[in-house]
From TrEMBL, chain A:
One of its GO terms (biological process) is amino acid transport. The chain crosses the membrane at residues 12-35, 47-73, 85-104, 139-159, 188-210, 216-234, 241-267, 279-299. Keywords: Amino-acid transport, Cell membrane, Membrane, Transmembrane, Transmembrane helix, Transport. GO terms for molecular function: transmembrane transporter activity. It comes from Actibacterium lipolyticum. It comes from the Bacteria. Belongs to the binding-protein-dependent transport system permease family. LivHM subfamily. The gene is livH_5. Its main location: membrane. This is High-affinity branched-chain amino acid transport system permease protein LivH.
UniProtKB/TrEMBL annotation, chain B:
GO terms for biological process: amino acid transport. The gene is braC. Residues 1-22 form the signal peptide. Keywords: Amino-acid transport, Signal, Transport. Belongs to the leucine-binding protein family. This is Leucine-, isoleucine-, valine-, threonine-, and alanine-binding protein. Residues 24-367 form the Leucine-binding protein domain. It comes from the Bacteria.
Automatic annotation (TrEMBL), chain C:
It is found in: Cell membrane. This is Leucine/isoleucine/valine transporter permease subunit. One of its GO terms (cellular component) is plasma membrane. It comes from the Bacteria. It is a multi-pass membrane protein.
């Protein structure tokens, strides 16, 4: 029972973090057709900016300013980088973001060093909130939950209740038409790219001290974010939300299950001592997202909730 | 007569010239200098540089200057071999490495091959921390010396501790999923079954090496298993994050570790870990020792204020190599290897012996506990490692049977 | 009328002399260089570098069968390299343990063939689901497959060897051409032989109808379908061949390094081969060769000069993506054609551009090198040409800002000139 409760809590938190990262990417991907390889690098930048800002002025200012800074970097990237490459087609854009990810990695290593930095949970939130089945539950995790939900609501209001949101929604599916209607599509692109990166940056601010802030954090989470976007489906934030939670729960539950293949498929004659039989469900956890990615692309290329094929 | 004199003079001059223009002894240091295990490798490199400086100040190694050439291998065996090739190309005839038995295994293989293929140009591998017992048993090699006690020797110490504490009835094993982690788990199972059959192993978990960012799910498993103690061989970031998660989830059972002294762990542990985290090692800086050794520790920590004197074995390695060079009057890897075999040294914490039959060091071991009542703290925390006389295991007592059949050239 | 048309077509076909110059001569030169290199008595480190270059040339050429020829962007090509390498290492293990029998008579020299078989087999299995789609979907599937296989590598110890990987010994089995393959100088001949042979075979592949169709599928899959070919099938067959040659490179690597670890299957080496190929120039057959030489050199030698070599690599890659999509080979070809067409004038503007870039690079290099040394915290100072550049000194900042402004300004000026000339 306690395993289920904790896995549920941890899984939802991890899933919401994933959603913060992937919501921006879904917007960018649907609208511009660019699978931004550097998206996770903006997540990393968020964590590092927050580390630097919070060492000067405390965590709360970092929570506000780090994502804004990341958003500005993102908008600048779109304006002076991506837009130039746009003429050469999607592959060139993809490669541009791929190179950018490399570059950001290296710049981060130069500025903040090759090893992890000591970016900590703020003292105000560094206490056990409650004790369940003998295990303390850190308050900061619940704080992540709150921030993520607040962001979710704000994003939903922005997209569904404002004029800008309506235009963005229209541009998600019919960018040319929006352009014909007289809207400045390049500026919409730049804004969305900036906002998407800012969301990734926010995820970095609250995820960096929850997990680890090191130069490898981008490459370790980047591919998983792609999985969320592809599984969720093009043009669908709802899909990305469901996929994020699904992946978060799947990975957390897999870690907490002790069974091995031999336990599950023993009735088929799979022995405890065979190599396949010894594989545990827990060790499958890192593979699951990619299995899902390949299966979805083969069986249902539009993803769970997408409106068109990739 | 005159001729003999001048010949002797010429010989003396050439000898002096040989001393004055002596070669540099290049030591290739192959360890992670970036990534999750970067801090661990970096700490080792600093200690090697410090030891090399000391030897150079005291006239060098048999009159030669010692130089450490660092190579970053990212704990990847293949990358290590690429770097090994580079080190050899740059003139390193001695290789030191420690982090990762997977890497050490590849280096032992490669060094053996290199030495058969390039006679007269041999390379010697001095291992300062890779503790898979196989390296001094089935896979032992004349070209490999280990200056750290192997996983079995350390596990003897930890299981003795478990046996002594009668409240401990359930033990949880957690480790990294590679040869070393598996060796630790196997040793724990074997020794506990032997020494304390009533102690139950309630969990035996292996997690991916250097990839887990949040150990909370593992800690929750530990807590719900009602374990009375946890044994882990984790090191580097895996040690720091495991302890961090344990503290924040309120897991307060004893953690018996190999590498609780990993850089960064003390900060993550803080006050809450006092009295519940143990480590088995060849040193803690609060042990009573000679004035010279205390001065050495002071000098080291003054030079690197963000690091602690942790790898005592690196100093032992360099000192013993220096002595071997003096004894054989040569810096040829083969001569040094011959001189190292069976060498007995009076170390600052007790007598240290390099076994000739399998090239495994025998040194006293200490089980120390994380404490707030210490003279020398770690990581500027006012906390540190302490031990009593009862926690000392004599060098002779760490000796294990070996299956090694050493083949000497 | 019809006679004239025939005549025109005949004129379009390359003459024998052209054929020789374009198709045969480069390979003769390539082989000649490979044979002549040992005459200069390279050092051991030079041999290490040359062997790595040879392996990467074949790997990048095989990747370009996908990227340049078939227009398939893959993020998982190292999977086939790695699986081929593992196959070769397991074969080497069997040779080592064989008492006569089949494996007793197989030379280690032939391991790249085992690698080819392994890579092609993996390509045939994995390509089946992936090749149904092109474009971004293909890229994503290749990424997913790469991550899956790399994760599996840590799970199946008997095949992939876990963290330790699988090691082998190349000095077993019968010798070919009297090579024991022990010393690195002998391994060089092995690598040179297979590099030249593989390059020749890959070039021959591009001349086959299948190779031609793969280019057509890249440019217009619909039209390919209209003329009666199945684009999926064409992609699939090309994918198998590319996997095979990647496996061949893996087999070469298995013999050279005698070890493979699951990391060799992961995204990082896949990304590196993509960068190699693209920087070299995916549109040209010689592009990947150029890219492999330049990047392998950077990887092994530039990394000794500066720790920030990956940053320079990233900058180089982005610059190429933004301003020279045809890569280094495209730049060389442009220079050659431009000079032949417009003579010295072209060479002059080109030289001016090089100077401008070089000036701007001075600024970038000073900035990066000073920053790297500061971030390391060892108190080292960047001292080029006897200068003493500390992070705080005004000279440092002058050397960063002035060259950057001058260089970029000059480039802008040149671009404007060109635009005006063009208009």
């Amino acid at each position: 029972m306690e395993t289920v409760v904790f896995s549920l809590l941890n899984g939802v938190i991890y899933g919401l973090l994933l959603f913060m990262l992937s919501s921006g990417l879904t917007l960018i991907f649907s609208m511009m057709g660019v699978l931004n390889f550097a998206h996770a690098s903006f997540y990393m930048l968020g964590a590092y900016f927050a580390y630097t800002i919070s060492s000067v002025s405390g965590f709360w200012l970092a929570l506000i300013f780090a994502p804004i800074l990341v958003g500005l970097v993102g908008a600048a990237t779109e304006r002076w980088g991506l837009r130039k490459v746009h003429a050469n087609g999607h592959v060139a854009e993809l490669l541009f973001t791929f190179g950018l990810a490399y570059l950001i990695d290296e710049v981060v290593k130069i500025i903040w060093g090759r090893n992890s930095v000591d970016y900590r949970v703020p003292e105000l939130l560094d206490f056990p909130l409650f004790t369940l089945y003998g295990t303390q539950y850190p308050a900061y995790r619940i704080f992540i939950l709150f921030v993520a939900v607040a962001m979710l609501v704000a994003l939903w209001l922005l997209l569904k209740r404002t004029r800008a949101g309506l235009i963005i929604q229209a541009a998600l599916t019919h960018p040319e038409m929006v352009g014909h209607l007289g809207h400045n599509v390049p500026r919409i692109f730049m804004t969305v790219f900036g906002v998407g990166c800012a969301l990734a940056g926010l995820a970095g601010v609250i995820g960096g001290n929850y997990l680890v802030t090191d130069p490898a954090m981008a490459i370790s989470i980047g591919p998983i974010v792609f999985v969320v976007v592809v599984v969720g489906g093009l043009g669908s934030l709802e899909g990305a939300f469901i996929a994020s939670l699904l992946l978060g729960l799947l990975q957390t539950f897999a870690v907490s299950i002790d069974a091995s293949f031999a336990d599950i498929f023993g009735w088929l004659g799979l022995g405890e001592t065979t190599e396949v039989g010894r594989i545990t469900i827990a060790s499958l956890a890192p593979m699951l997202p990619f299995l899902m990615l390949v299966l979805i692309l083969m069986v249902r290329p539009r993803g769970l909730m997408g409106d068109r094929d990739i | 007569m005159n001729f003999t004199k001048s010949a002797a003079l010429a010989a003396a001059i050439s000898l002096c010239a040989g001393m004055a223009f002596s070669d540099t002894v290049k030591i290739g240091f192959i360890d992670p200098l970036s990534g999750p295990f970067g801090p661990t490798g970096d700490a080792g490199l600093k200690q090697f540089n410090f030891a090399a400086d000391q030897i150079n100040e005291n006239g060098g190694m048999a009159g030669n200057t010692v130089e450490i050439l660092p190579f970053d291998n990212k704990v990847n065996p293949k990358e290590s071999l690429v770097q090994l090739q580079k080190a050899i190309d740059q003139g390193a005839r001695f290789i030191v490495q420690g982090n990762g038995s997977s890497v050490a295994s590849a280096i032992i293989d490669a060094v053996n091959k290199h030495n058969t293929r390039n006679p007269g140009d041999e390379v010697l591998f001095l291992n300062y921390a890779a503790v898979d017992p196989a390296f001094t048993n089935d896979r032992c090699s004349f070209w490999h010396f280990r200056f750290d006690s192997d996983a079995d020797m350390k596990m003897e110490a930890l299981t003795d501790w478990v046996t002594k504490n009668e409240d401990i009835k359930k033990v949880y094993l957690i480790g990294q999923d590679y040869s070393f982690g598996k060796a630790v788990a196997a040793a724990a199972e074997r020794m506990l079954a032997e020494k304390a059959p009533d102690v139950e192993i309630v969990g035996n978990e292996l997690h991916p090496l250097g990839k887990v960012k949040d150990f909370t799910p593992y800690i929750q498993k530990i807590i719900s298993s009602d374990a009375d103690a946890v044994i882990t061989g984790n090191w580097g970031q895996d040690m720091v994050l495991l302890i961090k998660a344990a503290i924040s989830s309120g897991s307060d059972v004893p953690y018996l570790t190999y590498y609780g002294g990993s850089l960064g762990a003390a900060v993550a542990m803080g006050e809450q870990a006092v009295g519940s985290v143990y480590q088995v090692s060849e040193v803690n800086t609060n042990l009573p020792t000679t004035d010279a050794q205390n001065a050495l520790i002071d000098a080291y920590e003054a030079k690197y204020p963000n690091n602690n004197y942790y790898f005592h074995r690196i100093h032992m390695l360099m000192d013993m190599m220096d002595m071997a060079a003096e004894k054989s009057g040569s810096t040829d890897p083969k001569d040094i290897a011959m001189a190292l075999e069976g060498m007995v040294v009076d170390g600052p914490y007790g007598t240290v012996t390099m076994r000739a039959d399998n090239h495994q060091i025998l040194q006293p071991l200490f089980v120390s506990v994380f404490s707030d009542n210490v003279q020398r703290d770690v990581e500027n925390t006012s906390l540190g490692w302490a031990s009593t006389d009862a926690d000392r295991i004599e060098a002779e007592d760490t000796k294990t049977e070996t299956t090694c059949k050493m083949e000497r050239p | 009328m019809s006679d004239m048309a025939t005549e025109n077509f005949a004129n379009l076909a390359p003459s024998n002399a052209q054929k020789f110059r374009m198709r045969v001569l480069p390979f003769v030169l390539f082989a000649a260089v490979a044979v002549l290199i040992p005459l200069f008595g390279p050092s051991r480190s030079a041999y290490s570098l040359l062997n790595a270059i040879g392996i990467n040339i074949v790997f990048a050429l095989s990747y370009n069968m996908l990227l340049g020829r078939a227009g398939l962007l893959s993020f998982g090509h190292a999977v086939y390299f790695g699986l081929g390498g593992y196959a070769a290492l397991h074969a080497m293990g069997m040779i080592e343990n064989a008492d006569g029998g089949f494996w007793g008579s197989v030379p280690v020299f032939a391991m790249p063939l085992v690698g080819f078989a392994g890579g092609a087999l993996a390509g045939a299995v994995i390509g089946w689901p992936s090749c149904r789609r092109a474009g971004t979907a293909f890229a994503m599937i290749s990424l997913g497959v790469a991550e899956l296989i790399a994760a599996m590598g840590f799970m199946f110890g008997s095949i992939f060897g876990g963290e330790e990987g699988i090691s082998g010994d190349r000095m077993n089995g019968p010798e070919v051409f009297g090579l024991s393959l022990g010393p690195i100088g002998e391994v060089y001949w092995f690598i040179a032989f297979w590099t030249v042979l593989a390059a020749l075979l890959i070039f021959a592949f591009t001349r086959t109808p299948l190779g031609r169709m793969s280019e057509a599928t890249r440019d217009n899959p619909q039209r390919v379908e209209f003329v009666g070919y199945d684009p999926t099938r064409v992609r699939y067959l090309v994918f198998i061949a590319a996997g095979g040659f990647a496996g061949l490179a893996g087999g070469m690597s298995a013999v050279n390094y005698e070890i493979f670890t699951p990391e060799a299957l992961s995204l990082l080496p896949s990304g590196f081969v993509l960068i190699m190929t693209y920087v070299g120039g995916a549109r040209y057959f010689a592009g990947p060769v150029l890219g492999a030489i330049v990047l392998t050199y950077m990887q092994s030698n530039l990394s000794d000069f500066t720790e920030a070599w990956l940053l320079y690599l990233g900058l180089l890659f982005i610059t190429i993506v933004m301003y020279a999509p045809n890569g280094l080979a495209g730049i060389v070809a442009g220079l050659w054609n431009g000079t032949r067409a417009t003579g010295m004038a072209y060479l002059k503007t080109w030289a001016a551009r090089v100077v401008a870039i070089a000036i701007a690079m001075v600024g970038v290099i000073v900035l990066v090198e000073v920053a790297v040394r500061k971030s390391n915290g060892y108190g080292e100072v960047f001292e080029p040409f006897g200068l003493h550049l500390t992070p705080g000194s005004p000279l440092t900042w002058a050397l960063v800002i002035v060259p950057l402004i001058v260089g970029l300004g000059l480039l802008r000026h040149l671009a404007r000139d060109e635009q005006e000339a063009g208009a």
